[in-house]
Amino acid sequence: MSSSLPLSDLPGPLPTCPVPAVAALTTVPAASAAPAEPGTHSPLTPADSPFGPARLARHALTLLPLVLVGAWAAADWHTVRDGAARLASADPWWLLAGLFFTCMGWVCAAVVRQGAIPDRLPPGLLLASQFAAGAANQVLPASIGAHAVTLRFLQSQGIPLARGTASLALYSLAKPVAKTVVLLGFLVAFPELLHLGELVPGRRTWVLVAAGVVTALVTAALLMTTVRALRRPLLGFVRTALTDARILHTRPNRVLALWGGAAATPLLQASVIASVGFALGLPLSWTQVTLALLLASTAVGAVPAPGGIGPVDAALVFTMVTFGAPMGLAAATVIGYRVLTVWVPLLPGALVLSIMVQRKIL
Prior knowledge:
Blueprint: H1 21-27, H2 53-75, H3 77-88, H4 92-115, H5 123-137, H6 144-156, H7 161-189, H8 203-226, H9 228-248, H10 252-280, H11 286-300, H12 311-322, H13 327-358
């Protein structure tokens, strides 16, 4: 028997019948499905494809150092051949000593890098990064390659970009300052070597150097005052650099690593040149070779050449000839020095660089 009450008198809306779960699942569109967990890809995504852009870019970066090494070797093959021929007839024990000082140069670079930043870096990876940076430094001018590799390594270790850049600036400042101090110390300790004659720069050279420094300072000041987009990052960089420098100079171990390592760097380089020279019979002492390197690198070290090759080599040969070395022997010493410090470690350094890029350490 049906009720005679009208449906309009019922309090509230009529109850709805629940939709079964199975039916609800069948009506859900494919676009609203739950997203996959982060880090997973469907079997058909381009990320897992062997020809995907990400993998192709990573493989290209891995092979790029080796390609650059091959291209440079092909372009400078005469230097490699002549240097190898010279070294083949040299004293092997002095060459081993030069190779030892070359390896110590990478250790010294790692020590200076650690001294330029307050954070503790893993020693093994830091040394490997400097070995790889040595290969990159021979391709790009003005140490851009070495700084780029080091900056990528610092970022992979969790160092912010501003602090990493400030560390590179402090490293770049400490090396010429320490080298100048070492040069002045040599000139004071060995006054008999002060008769340099034509090695002393003329007035025109000093005027050009002063003009370059003033131009750089004025340009930086104008950029900071006129370009507002650069003002904040530049001020932040200066603030970070000054703060880190103050913190570093309150730690004796960092001070010793930074300034002691920067002062030892030219001495190790001079030891490599002297070892190669002694292997070839160069009639100069270690002191004369060291002073020749300090003068040559100070005079033309600012020229943006890859690894300093070219201007520094010519100035070094000229300086050693001024000290009494024969022209041919001085040139052979510089060629042997470049072979020992550039070409011998270049391929292993490029391989280490490729491995570190592939493993995402850089």
